[in-house]
């Protein structure tokens, strides 16, 4: 190791450990450091065998063990921990060294760090990583953003450790500034929406169609063999099949119905509002998780109102099952549609330089939202790169028109049976709104002008107008 190790990694949680092993198993020597020395010792003792991994127990030794220009991956908790680690590292680094933040950082933090480090002559990449613990070890989807100069230093290793598909490595340079972390944030927003849509399908099937958990698992597995094929469908039917060893019941039936979140879905909804992009399904999925936390209130209200809100299912189970499959397809497609529109507007506003076809390509393998549908989405994007939400495409129009009668049936049936389907409903409302030449916003403008003299535009002549309404 006369010239030092090729790359360094700080932060040996499970993701960090797996990523270090992935890099080492691809033939690159790795130095590792963790703030808690005992975790480093346990990693080396329990998981490293013949891989070229070198432990360091202080930052100076860690930095000195690396080839120049140094390349250091951070796998630490997003927020202040990243800033603290950067502040500890920078006095030990030299001009041209590179720090790569592979945590779930907010894109605005990434842009701030990039600018600050540039004044010190240091390079920085904000890099989203998706795939969970297994993906980190076997090949994740990697979403780097920053400068081309910084990416060039690690392009080879990142593309080697990424998931591989028939379309190549699931890693590419995405664009300037915080592009990588913005793409990962929207990825997670889409993930929230699809997870919620699958959960709603499960709820309709158990509560309205009266299917057992195992029957739903079988159904999800069958759907996963077709157009709904995706990682999230795969893990859903596998989760439904898991039996609780203590009770003998399906484990999912023993899990408290209170969903947690780490913030990336909320950031996506906030960014959509900031940029003025309609992303109702992505935002609704966040609110659904928030609402799930009010368990005590829900139980109390259900005791008073549930019987009055629930009625017998108006559809035969077979018809409802078919409708749910199509409604889930529509929700998935429109969740991607909203996410791509948000990416397009962010790229224009923040000058990221995103290529949406490439974004979809690197989502095809390794990541949580990988799905067969991505091929169809890429076809539409490649035909018209100025179609941010896909809905101007004849292919997209034909697809959604085929699904929407079923989705309407699901929503009506679910509401009759007292089953909430917020993402399925929001997807339909989004589509109906986008396909209306005239919306009732004219009345809203009249109301705003009435109480606040906010003015309005007319349909018959240019200009801005105000009326004395009384």
Ordered list of secondary-structure elements with their pairings:
Layout: E1 7-10, H1 14-25, E2 30-33, H2 37-46, E3 53-55, H3 59-64, E4 71-74, H4 80-89, E5 98-101, H5 107-119, E6 123-130, H6 132-138, E7 141-146, H7 148-161, E8 164-165, E9 168-169, H8 179-207, H9 213-224, H10 231-241, H11 264-275, H12 280-292, H13 295-309, H14 317-350, H15 356-362, H16 373-383, H17 394-416, H18 422-434, H19 441-452
Parallel strand pairs: 1-2, 1-4, 2-3, 4-5, 5-6
Antiparallel strand pairs: 6-7, 8-9
Helix pairs in contact: 1-6, 8-11, 8-12, 8-14, 9-10, 11-12, 12-18, 14-17, 14-18, 15-16, 17-18
Helix content: 55-70%
Overall mean confidence score, pLDDT? 96
**Number of helices, counting only DSSP H or I runs of 4 residues or more:** 19
Outline type: globular
Element string (H = helix, E = strand): EHEHEHEHEHEHEHEEHHHHHHHHHHHH
Number of strands: 9
Kindly estimate the percentage of residues that lie in beta strands according to DSSP.
5-15%
Alpha carbon gap, first and last residue: 84 Å
Structural class: alpha/beta
Q: Uncertain segments of ≥5 residues (pLDDT<50)?
A: none
Largest sheet: 7 strands, mixed
The largest beta-sheet arranges its strands as 3-2-1-4-5-6-7
């Amino acid at each position: 190791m006369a010239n030092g190790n090729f790359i360094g990694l700080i932060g040996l949680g499970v993701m960090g450990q797996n990523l270090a092993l992935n890099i080492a198993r691809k033939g690159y020597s790795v130095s590792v450091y963790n703030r808690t020395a005992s975790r480093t010792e346990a990693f080396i003792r329990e998981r490293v065998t013949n891989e070229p991994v070198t432990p360091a127990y202080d930052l100076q030794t860690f930095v000195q063990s690396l080839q120049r220009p140094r390349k250091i991956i951070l796998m630490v908790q997003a927020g202040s921990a990243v800033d603290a680690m950067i502040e500890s590292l920078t006095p030990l680094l030299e001009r041209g060294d590179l720090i790569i933040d592979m945590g779930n950082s907010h894109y605005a933090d990434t842009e701030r760090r990039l600018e600050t480090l540039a004044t010190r002559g240091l390079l920085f990449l904000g890099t989203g990583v998706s795939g969970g613990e297994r993906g980190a070890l076997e090949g994740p989807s990697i979403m780097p953003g920053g400068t081309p100069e910084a990416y060039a230093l690690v392009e080879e290793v990142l593309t080697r450790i990424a998931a591989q598909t028939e379309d190549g490595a699931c890693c590419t340079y995405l664009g300037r500034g915080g592009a990588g972390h913005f793409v990962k944030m929207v990825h997670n927003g889409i993930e929230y929406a699809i997870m919620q849509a699958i959960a709603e399908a499960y709820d309709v099937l158990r509560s309205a169609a009266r299917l057992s958990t195992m029957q739903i698992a079988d159904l999800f597995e069958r759907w996963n063999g077709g157009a709904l094929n995706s990682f999230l469908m795969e893990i859903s039917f596998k989760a439904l099949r898991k039996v609780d060893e203590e009770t003998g019941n399906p484990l999912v039936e023993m899990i408290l119905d209170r969903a947690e979140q780490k913030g990336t879905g909320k950031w996506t909804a906030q960014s959509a509002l900031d940029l003025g992009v309609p992303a109702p399904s992505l935002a609704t999925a966040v609110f659904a998780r928030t609402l799930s936390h009010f368990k005590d209130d829900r139980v109390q209200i259900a005791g008073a109102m549930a019987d009055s809100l629930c009625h017998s299912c108006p559809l035969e189970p077979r018809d409802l099952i078919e409708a749910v499959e199509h409604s889930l397809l529509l929700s998935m497609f429109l969740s991607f549609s909203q996410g791509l529109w948000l990416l397009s507007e962010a790229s224009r506003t923040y000058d990221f330089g995103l290529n949406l076809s490439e974004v979809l390509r690197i989502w095809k393998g390794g990541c949580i939202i990988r799905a067969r549908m991505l091929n169809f989405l890429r076809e539409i994007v490649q035909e018209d790169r100025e179609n941010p939400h896909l809905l101007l495409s004849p292919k997209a129009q034909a697809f959604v028109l085929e699904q929407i009668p079923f989705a309407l049936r699901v929503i009506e049936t679910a509401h009759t049976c007292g089953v909430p389907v917020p993402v399925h409903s929001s997807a339909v409302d989004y589509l109906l709104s986008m396909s209306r030449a005239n919306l009732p916003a004219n009345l809203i403008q009249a109301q705003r002008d009435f109480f606040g003299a906010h003015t309005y535009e007319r349909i018959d002549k240019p200009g801005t107008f105000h009326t004395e309404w009384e």
